[in-house]
Amino acid sequence: MADPSSYRPKPGQIPDSPGVYRFRDEHRRVIYVGKAKSLRQRLANYFQDLAGLHPRTRTMVTTAASVEWTVVATEVEALQLEYSWIKEYDPRFNVKYRDDKSYPYLAVTLNEQFPRVQVMRGAKKKGVRYFGPYGHAWAIRETVDLMLRVFPVRTCSAGVFKNAARTGRPCLLGYIGKCAAPCVGRITPEEHRELADDFCDFMAGRTGAYIRRLEKDMMAAAEEMEYERAARLRDDVEALKRAMEKSAVVLADATDADLIAVAEDELEAAVQIFHVRGGRVRGQRGWVTDKVEAVDTAGLVEHALQQLYGEETGDSVPKEVLVPALPEDPESVSQWLAGRRGSQVSLRIPQRGDKKDLMVTVQRNAQQALGLHKTKRASDLTTRSRALEEISEALGLDTAPLRIECFDISHLQGDDVVASMVVFEDGLARKSEYRRFQIKGFEGQDDVRSMHEVIGRRFRRYLQEKERTGEWEEAPAPADTVADPGAGAVLEGPARDADPFDNEPREDDGRPKRFAYPPQLVVVDGGQPQVAAAKRALDELGIDDIAVCGLAKRLEEVWLPDDDDPVVLPRSSEGLYLLQRVRDEAHRFAITYQRAKRAKRIRSSPLDAVVGLGETRKQALIKHFGSVKKLKQATIDEICEVPGIGRRTAESVAVALASTTPAAPAVNTATGEIIEEDDGGSAP
Q: 539-544 contacts: CB < 8 A, separation 24 or more?
C-alpha cells in the first residue's frame, strides 16, 4: 500500500486548465482515468487526509504509485480523451458497464455492392446501418419477413449469392417474390441499392410518407382497373402496418430520442435505455455495473453516455437524449454529442408530459433489471456459500453463520418508533420468522436506546422459551392483523408462511411453531453506537455465544464490538453483498410497518371531527407539527402558519383537539383485568 504523499505533485506543477489524468500502480498499469475542468483543483481532492476520503477513493490512491496528466484546450476534448483512454487501458477503478454484446441488431450492409439485410451482433462495423437493439433475434426475423414483401432486399449469405450467380438460378426467396434476385440480374445494382435505402428510411421512422405513397398508387391502379397491382399494393400496405404495430407508439411521430434511466444501490447500478425513433420504441438495452469508484447518479449517466455514443456517428446519435440527472458539465457533454451527430443534440431531464411518463417506464425496467440481477446472484448456492465463508473470515467466527438475524429501527421524527427483525438461513430469507416490534418504553429519536430494547426483548423471549423445554403457551396474534402482501408477513405479530387467517404458524405435529432458535450472527443497521447497544443487551442477559456486528449504510463499513476501526470488505466481496442484502431487507420491513402505523394513526385522527378539513390539509398539519400530540400543544397563531390553514379553520382545529380525551383502556370482560397493547410481535 503506497503513501499518496510519496508521489503527490507540487501544487505549482499542476496546471489550472482542462485535462485528463491517469493514476498508475507500481507496475505502471493505469488503474484510474479521470477528466477535469481544472486539473489543479481536481487532483488536490485526491491528496487530502485519507480519513476524509471515500473508502473507494482511499483504496484507489493507496494502490496508485504515480499520477500523470495531459492538458487539452476544452472540456469537450477532455471528454473525448477520457473515453479513448478508458477504452484503451480498461482501468480497474473506473465504472465498467458489463455490456451484453449478444444484443441482436437489424443490420443493412451498405458497404457492399448489393446490400444485405441480416441479424448482427457484437461490435459495429463501418459502413453498416444498424437498427435496434432488439430483445430477441426472432423479433427481427418476423419484422424482416413482413417487410421483404415491399422491400425485396437481398438477405442471403455471400456463398449462396455467388452460387446463384454462377448457376443462374435464384434461391427460393427469389422465386416467391421476397428477393429482387440481383444475383441473376433481375435488377441492376443501382436499383437494388435504392431498395435498400428505402428499407433503411422506413426502419428509421419515416413511415407515414411511404405508406401514403403506396396508398395513392393503389388508388391510381384501381382507377385504371389494374386490380391485380392494386391488390398487391394493398397487401404491401397491410404488411408494413403490421410491421409498424410491432413497435408501440409512445411519442409524437417525429420524435427521435434515447431515454436513459438508472437504478442503483451502494454496490451496484443498472442502466436501462429505450431507443425511440419516429415516436416508436425501436430498441431496448441494459447494463449492470459494480460501483468501483465513488460515483453518483450524474456520474453514472455520464459514463453511460460515453459508452453509448463513444463510437457512434450521424443518425445513430438521436436529436434528444433524456436522462434522470445531468452530468457535472452538461454543456461539454452536449457539445460532444453534437460533434458525434453532426448537429445539435438536446440533453435534458424530462419534466412533464408523455416523455416524463415514458421515463417512469424506463426507470421501472431499470429497477426490475437490478432486482433480477440480485436475485440471480443470491440464488446461486456456490455464491451463497462463498459469502458465508467470507463473513466468517472477516468477523473471526469459528463457523459460517448459517442463521443471521438483522435488526433495524424506523420512525418519523421520533414518532411511531418501530423495529424489525429479519432472518436469513443459509443465505436465503426465511420470511416465516420475520418479526416486528413497537418501541413503547419511550419516545424520541434515540436509535441506540431503541436497539438495546429490541435486542433485549427478542433474546429474553429466547431464554424463556429455552427454559420451558417443550411447553408452549404463547398468546395468539392480535385479531386485527392484516396481511402484508409485499413481505409475506403481517403488519403486527409474526410473519406468515401459511393461511393469513391462521393465528399461529404450526409445526408438523400441530404445536405452535417455536421461536427459540438462536442465530450465529446478529447484524444491526448502524455503526459503533448501535453495535455497542446490542452487545450490552446480550451481556445483560448472559449471552456470550452470539456474534454481533453492524453495517453502516453510508460507507458500507462493518463494525464489531469494542473495535475502534471498522472491518472494510472488498467491493467485490460476496460477503459484503449478503450483509447489504440482509440490512436492506430489514430496513424495508421496518419502514413498511412504520408507514402503515402512521397511516392508521392519521386515518383515526381527532382532526376527522373538524368540518371542511380534507385529507390534504390534515396531512399538511401532521407534516408541519410532526404528530397530533404536538399539534394539540400549538397555539392558534402557530396553526395559522401552515399553508392553506386560515384563522377560522385553526380555531376549529384547536377546539376539536381540546375536546378529545384519552381513550379508555380495554378491559377483559371475563376477568376485569386491563388488557395491555400488543407489542407488535410474538417473539419479543
A: 540/456, 541/456, 541/459, 541/460, 541/463, 543/459, 543/463, 543/518
What is the rounded distance in angstroms from the CA atom of residue 367 to the CA atom of residue 271?
9
> CA dihedral defined by 631, 633, 637, 643, rounded to 10 degrees?
-10
Query: Would you say the C-alpha torsion 633, 636, 637, 639 has a positive or negative sign?
Result: positive
Task: Output the pLDDT for position 477.
Answer: 34
Are 260 and 230 in contact, with CB atoms under 8 Å apart?
no
Spatial CA neighbour of 677 closest among 514, 422, 480, 487: 480
* Beta strands in 570-621, from DSSP E residues, in sequence order: none
pLDDT at 479: 32
pLDDT at residue 216, rounded to an integer: 83
**Collapsing DSSP states into helix, strand and coil, what is residue 561?**
coil
Q: Tell me how far apart the alpha carbons of residues 520 and 403 are, in angstroms, rounded to a whole number.
A: 6
Between CA 244 and CA 278 the distance in angstroms is 11
CB contact at 8 A, 524 and 440: no
**Helices 75-89/330-341 angle, 10° precision:** 70
Backbone angles phi, psi at 14, to 5 degrees: -90, 125
CB 404 within 8 A of CB 521: yes
**CB 179, CB 164: distance < 8 Å:** no
For residues 406, 412, 418 and 424, what is the CA-based torsion angle, rounded to 10 degrees? -20
Rounded alpha-carbon distances, angstroms, from residue 31 to 3, 68, 569:
16, 12, 20
| Grid coordinates given for 376 | 440471480
Q: At what angle do helices 330-341 and 297-309 cross, to 10 degrees?
A: 10
pLDDT at 226: 83
Secondary structure of residue 611 in the 3-state scheme:
coil
Helices (H), 485-573: 528-540
Q: H or E stretch including 4?
A: none
- Amino acid residing at 100: D
What is the per-residue pLDDT for 82? Answer: 84
Task: Return the sign of the alpha-carbon dihedral for residues 551, 552, 554, 555.
Answer: negative
Residue-level pLDDT at 521: 92
Spatial separation of the C-alpha atoms in residues 306 and 620, rounded to whole Å: 44
Q: So what's the pLDDT on residue 441?
A: 59
Residues of the chain with pLDDT under 70: 1-2, 96-103, 132-136, 138-139, 205-209, 242-254, 267, 292-294, 376-380, 413-414, 441-445, 469-516, 553-555, 571-572, 600-605, 660-684
